Fold this protein.
Amino acid sequence: MDRSWWRNVLIILLVTAGSVWYLVPSYYSFFVLPRAQRNDLKLLAEKLPAWDRFPNHRLNLGLDLQGGIHMVLQVDTKTALQKRVERRGVQISNYLRDKGLAPVSIDANRERLQLTIVAKDAAEMDGMEKELKGFEDFSVVSREGPKLVLGLKDAQVARFKEESVDQAMLVIRRRIDKWGVAEVDVRKLGTDSIQISLPGRQDPEQAKELIGTTAQLEFRMVDDASPYFKQLYAQTPPPADSGITLTQVEGFEQLQGPEREPLLAYARPKTPAGREVLLECVPSRTKKGACEAYRTYLVDKTVPLTGESLAGADASVGQLGEFEVNLSFDTQGGLEFGRLTEANVGKRMAIVLDENVNSAPRINEKIPNGRARITLGRGTSKSYNEQRQEADNLALVLKAGALPAPVTVGEIRQVGASLGDELIRKGSLAAVVGLALVVVFMAVYYRGAGLIADAALLLNGLLILAGLALFNATLTLPGIAGFVLTLGIAVDANVLINERIREELDHGRSPRAAVDQGYDRAFWTIFDAHVTTLIAGVILLLTGTGPVRGFATSLIIGILASLFTSIVVTRTITTYLVHGRNAQTVSV
């Protein structure tokens, strides 16, 4: 046999061994681990033999096969744009001050996404307008004397909306990866929605808490000198049955009530200009995870610093035994945080997470190192493990990245696993019956050549499963259909080759010449058919969603495997039987 034959044998052996190697984690996942622990990657890594440590490369089952959680998240890009404009107003004010220009007043129009800049003297506006050209995301809407109106460009609005959804998908993916979920499917749904499938997960509330948590972290200044709450309580007493009282905490007055919405409805209608009322949860002493009451804070509407500048977050235990999350900012965020604390020494700064005041510590001095701390579990009845889990989850969400826009859970449902069992049985039965019928037909009709095609067909199925495991693909019911279809395509290629060989034998060719001519003449027909099907599969993969992509993935991997088995594997075996053993006849 020549060198090319030995080279092909070596390639076949290496590909077969590699396929078996990549399928070992899938075997342990499906046949060794209990079903309830099938998605536990840590346990799978412990069970795998020492020579195979690739638990992440395994065949995954989709939501339709094993059940799980289906979620749809809505991305509130409008609110994110409004907050972005407000933050840019603060940055512009600080920028002009750093340039040594006269102080200005900046008012943000949330609905129009505009900033109105007013200078004390109209003559100063010329220099300011020249300096503001560096803020390229804004354009000048109008200029009248000392007043300059800037508007967010339409192109920037469209770009920000698209990037917000894309970035939210990346952040959610990172959160899920840190959670250890294996078969996750995260995709864009429409223009402002994200669809998430979590096969094998059975706790919708846990998924909602981790994935749906917006983690909109903000630092706002507290107006604790305002008599607003005291005057409101005196001038407009709350309803007698509301339970709302005026209390004093750490030296300043706050309103406190047992229910969130009635307290907000009472405190917010007459809020002073430039201020906003937020609430802090008072943990229940008897019911774990609940709020015993809510307290009000009067904070600035302006948000000088957000979690976008966050560089890290780690959970730890403080000196008093309380769990806390330590935050660190990037370079620019550290400078902003230092400037903010320096300008507000002696005042309170509210650490706001998802529109709720987490804590409001007093700033005793400038904090130049860009670090902050969120303390958890004060006065709570939660156990040590529960407090630790709360701190770990918060650090995980913040460290995975702050979402660029608020996200709400539009839909969440749990898919039953019983349906998955039925689909698996039916799909597996269809695949086995189809494969058996093809194997029997080939063996009966083409005899020896049919047996060679059957061996290649079994190897083809092995390669498809290994390819799915290699790319960590998710196998769905349409994916099983694609698997069966590619087996048929693989057989079709062998039928073409065998018929070509028969034609050559009918023309009086010798067995060796018939085999060589049969494979050579069938090659381009097989190649063209496979490439056109491959192009269709790629288009389905790029444009399809959900089950369509599962079908396309199986189809593409199957087409590539079919090319290998029909052109390389069967020819290598047939060449050995005809050339190597000097056969005088060919059983076709």
